[in-house]
Amino acid sequence: MRARIERLLDRLIHASAMERIAVSLAALFASIIVGAVLVFVSGGFASCRTGLDLAGWTFCYNPIQVYYELFLGALGHPLEGGWSPTNFNLATTLQQTTLLIFTGLSVAVAFRAGLFNIGTQGQLVVGALATAVTVVYAAAIVPGGFVGTVVLIPIGVLAGAVFGGLFGAIPGALKAYADANEVITTIMLNFVAVGITSTLLSWRFQDPDSSNPQTEPIPEYAEIPNLPFGFGGTMDFSTLALAFAVLLMIGIAWLLARTSFGYELRTSGVQPQAAAYGGVDDKRMVVSSMTLSGALGGIGGAFWVLMVHGRWLENVPDLGFDGIAVSILAGNNPLGVGASAFLFGILESGSQSIGTATDVPPELVGVLSGLIILFVAMPEFFRMIGARYLHVEPDEPVWADGGGTDDGGETDA
C-alpha cells in the first residue's frame, strides 16, 4: 500500500501542465456532481410551496439553477439579454480577484522559499491601517485633485507594503535566528495584529464623527480611480487596480524565474542543503522571503482601503486566509494565482447571486463553495506533500568532484 501511494504521489509530482489542468477539471466536475446531489437531497428536507414531487416527497432546490447562479450569476448572467460587461456582479467578482491576487502571491512567495506564512491576514490588517492613516495625514499637506491622486495613491500603497513587510519580517527573523516555527509565530501574530491595530485605532486614529470602529475617510481623490470606460465608481472596483495586480503577478513570476534573488529563494526552498553549499545565506534568505511575503500582504490591505472602503474598518475580511487556498490551488505558481483568484472571486460573487435568486440557505451555499475548493485543491496539495517528503536531499554531503563516501567512510577518488 505504501509503495502504491508513493507511486501515485510521484505521478502527481511529475505530471505535465496539461495533465494537471485535466486533473483540476475532473476534480471540478466531481465536486459539481457531489454538490448537486447534496443540494437535491437537502431540498427534500426544506419547506416550500412548489418543487419537484418524487415518490410523494417534495424536493425544493434545483441543482441546475443553483450552479447556474453560482457560475453565470457571478458574471452577471451573460447568456441573458441586456448583459453589460460592466455589471455589478462581475465588478464584485473582479474586486475579489484583485485583492486575492495580492494575498495569494504573498503566500506563494513564502511557500516557494520553503516557508509556511499563515500570517498574511495579520500583515494585510497592519498594512491596511498604515495606508489609511498615512493617506489621511498626507492629504493635509498634499494638494487635491489630480496631483493628490498621483501622489497619495503611491504613498498609500508604499505605506502598506512597508508596514506589511516589517510585520512579515518578525516571524522571518524568529525563524532564522531563534529557530522558531514560522507556522506558530505567524498564526499568533495574526492575533497580535488585530490587537495592535484595534488599540491604535481607539487611542489615536478613531474617526471622531463615527461611533463605528473606523478611521477617518481618505479624500475621494485619493481612492484608486477607474478608466473612463470602465466600471462605475459606486461598484468599489477599479480596472486600474486589477491591471496593477496582474502586472505585479507577472513581476513576481519574473523575479522568481529570472533573477539571482529568485533563484536563491527557490533553491533554498527546494534544496536547502544545496543552496547552503552554493553560498546562499539561509538566514538572510528566510528574513528576505518573509519580508517580501508580508509586503505583498500589506499591498493587499492597501488596495482594500484605497479601492473598496476608503477607510480602515476593524472588521477586516479574511482575505489573507483565503490567500492560502488561492496559492495552494495555483500550485504556488505566481502566474497561476490569477486564475485561482478569479475562481474564488466567482464563488464569492456567485454565492451572493444564489442568495438573491433562490431559497437555498447561505450555509449550504458555503458548503458548495467549500466542496469546489477542496476537490480542486487536493491534487495540488498532495503534489506539494509528495514533493516535500518523497524527494528529500540525502544527509551525506555531496563533494565538488562528484564523489561521495563509501561504506568505510573514505572519500572516493
Gist of the model:
With 413 residues, this protein is an all-alpha fold. It is 67% helix and 1% strand.
Evaluate the radius of gyration: 24 Å
Measure the end-to-end span.
Answer: 40 Å
CATH architecture of the largest domain: Orthogonal Bundle
Low-confidence stretches: 392-413
Biggest sheet strand order reads: 1-2
Shape verdict: globular
CATH topology of the largest domain: ABC transporter involved in vitamin B12 uptake, BtuC
**CATH level-1 class of the largest domain:** Mainly Alpha
SS class: mainly alpha
Task: Output mean pLDDT.
Answer: 87
Number of E-type strands: 2
Number of contiguous helices: 14
**Biggest beta sheet attributes:** 2 strands, antiparallel
The H/E string reads HHEEHHHHHHHHHHHH
Beta percentage is: under 5%
How many structural units, i.e. domains?
A: 2
Helical content stands at: 55-70%
List keywords for this structure.
single chain; 413 residues; mainly alpha; ABC transporter involved in vitamin B12 uptake, BtuC; two-stranded antiparallel ribbon; 14 helices; 2 strands; globular; disordered C terminus
